[in-house]
Design goal:
The protein is an all-alpha fold. The radius of gyration is 17 Å and the shape is elongated. The chain has three helices and no strands. It has a single domain (4-91), classed as Helix Hairpins (Orthogonal Bundle), CATH 1.10.287. The chain has helices at 4-24, 28-53, 57-87. The model has no long low-confidence stretch (mean pLDDT 90).
Amino acid sequence: MISIDHYLLLSLALLVIGVAGALARRNLIVTLMSVELILNAVNINLVAFSREWGNVNGQVFAVFLIGCEAAEAVVSVGIVLAVFRGRKTVLADEMDLLKW
């Protein structure tokens, strides 16, 4: 039987990998994937606690969150592609469009 502890450990692993990837990488695509990992850790927590408490509120909220994640991914990849066309790079250190 899989208990809630297993789900929480999986969620913790995804959170740690996501935070490490977001902080350590300079590539914006890898950073966006790391943010998605963090949001998936949140989804696992929502579903695990929903299952533990016997209601479906967390599962419904997780489905809506997945939809928001998809919209966020589309918009952010669109922004990265637009910047890449102008700058020919996807490195976060070279994104200085707002500097004087």
